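hey so i finally got around to running the thing on that chain from the lab meeting. sorry it took forever, my laptop kept dying and i had to restart like 3 times. anyway pasting the input first so we r on the same page abt which one it is
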Amino acid sequence: MIALATIWELGWNTPLFEFDLWRFLVPEFQVDGGLWVTPVSGIVAPADFPLYERATVPAILEELGVIGVFLDQDGDIPLDEFEHPASCVYLTGATSYPILPYKRQGDVSVRVRTPAGAGGPWSHQIACLALYDRQVKSWPQP
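ok and heres what got predicted. didnt touch it at all, straight out
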């Protein structure tokens, strides 16, 4: 099971707009565990989209019960060296809300760097990079 989790960008964005940024990523990369988000906004996703809102990041982690892979520019393991677990939840923070403080014992943090290193990508873009990396590493090697 692969899931995604993030924090809504409530300071300058609306969950409904941000949802549209995530909605194509989940089916495209076959994220069978759905998109988990905090805090609860009350938006209603289409019936065929697996959106789960919970009050806190720890509540999401507890309910999913799988290893957390925290994607952050300050993570411990470079993405290109990371071996993706079979089951996990990939977690990204929001611009104003870092994700690493929620890391538990047994979870891992992955460093996702960009060429400029200015911390500019949105959380759905960072998740896309990690999911693409996962896909490429699963392809048969010649």
